[in-house]
Amino acid sequence: EVALSVPDKKVESLCPYCGVGCQLTYNVKDNKILYVEGRDGPANHGRLCVKGRYGFDYAHHPQRLTVPLIRRADAPKSGDMAMDPTRVMEFFREASWEEALDLAGSKFAHIRDTYGKRMLAGFGSAKGSNEEAYLFQKLVRTGFGNNNVDHCTRLCHASSVVALLEGIGSGAVSNPVMDVTKAEVIVIIGANPTVNHPVAATWIKNAVANGSKLVVMDPRRSELARISHRFLQFKPDTDVAMLNAMMHVIVHENLVDKEFIESRTIGYEDLKKNVEGYSPELMAPICGIDAETLRYTARLYATSKASIILWGMGVSQHVHGTDNARCLIALALMTGQIGRDGTGLHPLRGQNNVQGASDAGLIPMMFPDYQHVTDPKVQAKFEKAWNVPADSLDKSPGLTVVEVMHAIKKGEVRGMYVMGENPAMSDPDANHARDALASLDILVVQDIFLTETAYLADVILPATAFPEKDGTFTNTDRLVQMGRKALDAPGQAKPDLWIIQQLGQRLGLDWQYTHVSQVFDEMRRTMNSIGGITWERLEREHAVTYPCTKEGDPGQPVVFTETFPRESGRAKFVPADIIPAAERPDLDYPMVLITGRQLEHWHTGSMTRRALVLDALEPDPVALVHPLDLAAMGGQPGDIITIESRRGKVGLYARADESSPRGAVFVPFCYYEAAINRLTNAALDPFAKIPEFKYCAIKVTLGGDA
Ligand code: SF4
């Protein structure tokens, strides 16, 4: 049928999945997407991965929310209820928009006015547009009256951002992914781009084919390791030991860039002193990489004409995630491998708009453009820009994602507004998070499907999917791109901006935005980094890189060429020492759980598991186990196994997988029927408050229920 159909319109837009930000064309007929084609965007040049090409039909899925829902007064609500979408009408009744918004607004206002402003919190979304993120945080800050606003950046790269802001003054990447094609040495650590950033992986493969040397560092053997020049399969949790050993070599063999250190950095002597105790011989047994390989890799990175480091959540999702990133930053600074083409630091951002949502202020300690909420000058600036009384904005940083759940349990947060996030699936120790969400006085969820979080809601507001609205999105390269409406929303589903504004009005905010471009224009006025990007230019050019501070600026794909955006213009070395994982294996729980994603599914699976082709490719919850570990427990591929931690247990199918080291099991977190985050540990990195998704102690047994 698709092959015979001719589209009646073509809409130039973006892929809604990962941070690579591929441009694509929706081919639409009768309000249905027939197929998708890649466009010649700066990040993809026509390429798309399986998610971008085949993951569009979730928008047409019969389970779309199409009418506001209100929880029935007699419906049960508890965190341990297994979700059953077929019973939705036993728990909820249909409502008009007026009734649902009035109920949500009046309950929020009651809590704010009766119990205090800090009793409310909001989670926005890294899947929404920049304008949605901006308006959402503005609602929390001016309507709720506090800074309790966060989103899933807290769960992915919060530690990278803290280390980058501290060390080089900017939380975004220094060079675009495409710079791998200009690099002599490419280091990929704690990332699996073939799975999580597939089109970026193709540029890496092209670079290797053209002579770049690829070094992959990871406890799991990723696909890219096959074409690597060196693969360092270090032991889980030993990043700092390995990276400090490399720095020890660079110092001792005098491979540092003295001129760069002297003219552009501070704190080198402290770093030098710190790495003195981390000789390769001492660190080899700790990290599992022999001393000679550590020496070779250090020399290779330090002496190449251009070395770039890309990293992912294998680096960031640890209690020492900030320290891991500090080491990567120090490596680049001490060797001068930053501020030029083909060099630099690139934390591969996960969701399609996690960079933009963070830039737009969807974080509890910063207003838009990373302006601190504690700075009186910044407060005054936003009070004026937002036309709210002087001295009315909250001066204290708000609660982060996991802290909000603890605060709910302590009775310190009583109402929540969740837009497009699914903490019942994505939070660590998800049973605890679900209990917390179920105990709220009011939970309002705005989404396109009945997610596991929406299942616990009091009010559900049906929103629009990615292809049903206009908006801007910022990819991992700091590229602000235009997403365009291709479809009309189903039923009574409404654009998120409309819903946020309606709720804002019920909280006393006099907002009258009539077009998304008005929100973007307001962002430009408060965010220097995008001040030069106009809506018209984006309409015309589709994408502009920030920083772009003045109209007509071309934008800067490579930054830090002359100075760093810190007080002195200099970057700062921050030494790091070994801190072990919060929960190590023991006799009762002898193995290690590593969580992450798989190619065909995205995040908590709410979209990709409703995309026909993607779900057909990976329909069942699987655990990747080393074949020898599987054999040792008497199992075979396809057998059901039960994985248990101190916080819960799940049953799923075992897949033999030699990429996982012995003693470690990898499980994707997208399967609601085997929600692996029921097992993960909510221990936090002390600087970034990111949970330790990449390490907790488990036991695995044969048998159980999948
Ligand atoms: Fe979409 Fe990312 Fe795949 Fe590109 S690489 S098509 S942005 S999921």
UniProtKB/TrEMBL annotation:
Cofactor: [4Fe-4S] cluster; [2Fe-2S] cluster; Mo-bis(molybdopterin guanine dinucleotide)
GO cellular component terms, A-Z: membrane; oxidoreductase complex
GO biological process, one term: ATP synthesis coupled electron transport
Top-level taxon: Bacteria
Keyword match Iron: yes
Keywords assigned: 4Fe-4S, Iron, Iron-sulfur, Metal-binding, Molybdenum, Oxidoreductase, Repeat
4Fe-4S Mo/W bis-MGD-type domain residues: 8-63
Single annotated GO MF: molybdopterin cofactor binding
Family that this chain belongs to: In the C-terminal section; belongs to the prokaryotic molybdopterin-containing oxidoreductase family.
Protein known as: Formate dehydrogenase subunit alpha
Organismal lineage: Bacteria, Pseudomonadati, Pseudomonadota, Betaproteobacteria, Burkholderiales
From-to range in the entire protein, with total length: 219 to 924 of 947
